[in-house]
Amino acid sequence: MEKIQNDTIAAIATPVGEGGIGIIRLSGSGSLKIADGIFEGKHGRNKPSGFLTYTTHYGLIRDKSEKIDEVILTVMRAPKTYTREDVVEINCHSGIVPLRKILELVLARGARIAEPGEFTKRAFLSGRIDLSQAEAVADVVRAKTDLSLKAAMGQLQGGLSKKISSARAGLLNLLADIEASIDFPEEDTGDVPGNMLAGKLDQCRIELEGLLKTFDAGRLLKEGVSAAIIGRPNVGKSSLLNCLVGKERAIVTSVPGTTTDTIEETMDVGGVHIRVIDTAGIGRRGKRPGIIEAEGIRRAGRVMEVSQLLLLVLDGSQPLKAEDRKLLGRIKNRKAIILINKIDLRQKIKSKDLQTAHPAIEISAKKNRNIDKVRAQISREVWGGKIDFTGDAVLTSIRHKNEIGSAVKNLRSAGSSAGSAELASMDIREAINALGRITGETITEDILDRIFDKFCIGK
Ligand SMILES: Nc1nc2c(ncn2[C@@H]2O[C@H](COP(=O)(O)OP(=O)(O)OP(=O)(O)O)[C@@H](O)[C@H]2O)c(=O)[nH]1
Ligand SMILES: [Mg+2]
User: Fold this and answer.
1) Mean pLDDT of 360-376
2) Pick from 123, 129, 202, 438: most CB atoms within 10 A?
3) Neighbours of ion ligand 2 (CB under 5 A)
4) Distance from residue 240's CA to the centre of ligand 2 (Å)
5) Dist. CA 135 → ligand 1 center (Å)
6) Rounded to whole angstroms, how far apart are CA atoms 452 and 431?
7) What average pLDDT does the chain have?
8) 305 backbone dihedrals φ, ψ, rounded to 5°
9) Dihedral angle sign, alpha carbons of residues 17, 22, 27, 31
10) What is the annotated localization of this protein (predicted)?
11) What local confidence, expressed as pLDDT, does residue 2 receive?
C-alpha cells in the first residue's frame, strides 16, 4: 500500500510544558524549504536545505525581525528517516510560548498540523515498517514496566511480523499449488495430494495456535491487572495500600469508615503493572452510613465486581464476623488472596477457621510485616508461573488476536474440505487476508484510521 504524501506535516513532538527541551517535528517534501524561511544559522550563512543529512546546527528561529528562540536544528533527508520523507527537528526551549510560536510559524509557511500518529502512519505507508511494527510504537511509548517494554520492542523490531509473514508466505505458496491443480487438472503440476495439503495446513495452523496461546500473558504485560483491597471497615485496608505502594497515599485513622471513596495507585510486581484500588469498608460502621458512606460502599461493590484480583483484608485481632463471612462467600469463585491483618496483636482468627480455598497470609500492615509475601503471592496469582518470556513473539493486541483467531478457523475449515480444492482455496485465501491485516498488506482506510487515532500527536 504505497502512497505518495505531498503535504508537509508538523507537530510538537514533546509534552507541552516547562522543560529542558521541546521538539517541533516536520516531515514532508516541504520541510527543508519551510525551515529555510525561519532558521538563521549562527555559524555560516547556510540554510537547512544546504545541510547534510543527520547534521545538527545551532541558530535562531526568526519571524522576520523578531527573534523567537535559540535552537538546535537537525536535518534528516529522505529516504533514511522515520517517515522516509525529509524530516526537520527543531529543538527549542520547552516552554508553551516558544513551542507554540515556532509551530505557528511553520504552519504559516505551508506545513499542515499532523494528525495523531501521522508520522508513524507515514512510516507505515512508505513501507519502512509494517502495521504491527507501527502499532508497537504506541506500545513502547505507553509501556509501564520493563517487561511490557520488552514485549513492545520485540514487536517493533519485527518479531511478530516475521512469524506472520512467514505463515502468510507458506499459505500463498500452498494456494498457488492448489489453484494450479484446479486450473490444469489434466497436467501433472506436481500437484498437492490431499494428505500433503492437510499436513501443510496443520503445520501452519499449529504455529498460529501457539502464537494465540501467548495472548493471555501478552495482554497482562500490556494492560496490567487491577487488584481491589476489600473488607469490613477499620480492618486495615488503607494501611495495606500504603504499605504496598510505599507511601502515605490514603488516610488511615482508627475511625471506622475513614475511606469513603475508591483510591487508586499503581505498582510494579515482577514486571506486571498493577493498579491497586483501596475501597470503602463494606458493612456496618459505628454509625449508620450517611449518603457519602453509602455511595462509597456502592463503589466498593462495583470495584470488587470488575477487578481481576481481590485482596480481602480481615482483622486478625477480632473473631470472624458475619460480614467477613459474607465477603468470604462473595469471593468464592474469584481470584483472591486473604490477608489476616494486625498479627502484631493477640490473634483471634486461625487460618483453618476460614474454610476457604484461597491462599491466606498473616500480615501486619501497621508494622510492615510479611508485605513481601503479599507481593510474591500477587505475582503467583497473576502470572500463575506460566509466563515464559524468551524473546519470542508475544501477542499483546486484541486486534492481532482476533485476526489470528479467524485465520485459524479458516485453516481448520480448509482442512476439513479436503475433497474440494475450490472450497479449500477459498478458506485459505480468507486466512491469508486475515494475516495480511495484521502486517497491513490487506487493510482498509477506516481500520488504519482507528489504529492511528489512538496515538499521541507528534508520534
Ligand atoms: N495493631 C495494628 N493496627 C493496625 C494494623 N493495620 C491497621 N491498623 C490500624 O487499624 C485502624 C484502621 O486502619 P485503616 O487502614 O484506616 O483501615 P481501613 O480498613 O482502611 O478502614 P476504613 O477506611 O475505615 O474502612 C488504624 O488505627 C490503623 O492504625 C496492624 O497491622 N496492626
Ligand atoms: Mg480505609
Assistant:
1) 96
2) 438
3) 237-238, 258-259
4) 9
5) 44
6) 24
7) 91
8) -65, -40
9) positive
10) Cytoplasm
11) 43
pLDDT band at 204 (very low <50, low <70, confident <90, very high): very high
If we measure between CA atoms, which residue out of 92, 113, 98, 121 comes closest to residue 11?
113
In the DSSP assignment, the letter for residue 16 is S
340 CB under 6 A from ligand 1?
Answer: no
Residue with CA at minimum distance from ligand 1 atom 27: 254
Nearest to 158 by CA among 135, 188, 183, 181: 135
The residue with cell 469490613 is: 232
Q: What is the CATH number of domain 9-129?
A: 3.30.1360.120
pLDDT tens-place string over residues 138-194: 999 999 888 889 999 999 999 999 999 999 999 999 999 888 877 766 555 444 566
Q: 133-214+393-440 falls under which CATH superfamily? A: tRNA modification GTPase MnmE domain 2 (1.20.120.430)
Strand ranges (E), 260-415: 263-269, 272-278, 309-315, 336-341, 360-362
**Topology given in CATH for the domain delimited by 223-383:** Rossmann fold (3.40.50)
Residue 67 CB coordination number (10 Å): 10
How many helices (DSSP H) and strands (DSSP E) are in the chain? Answer: 15, 13
Amino acid identity, position 335: K
Question: Of 67-76, 138-147, 220-229, which has the strongest mean pLDDT?
Answer: 67-76
Higher-scoring residue by pLDDT: 95, 2: 95
Length of the chain: 459
Sign of CA pseudo-dihedral 239, 241, 246, 248: negative
Q: In whole angstroms, what is the distance from residue 53 CA to residue 30 CA?
A: 15
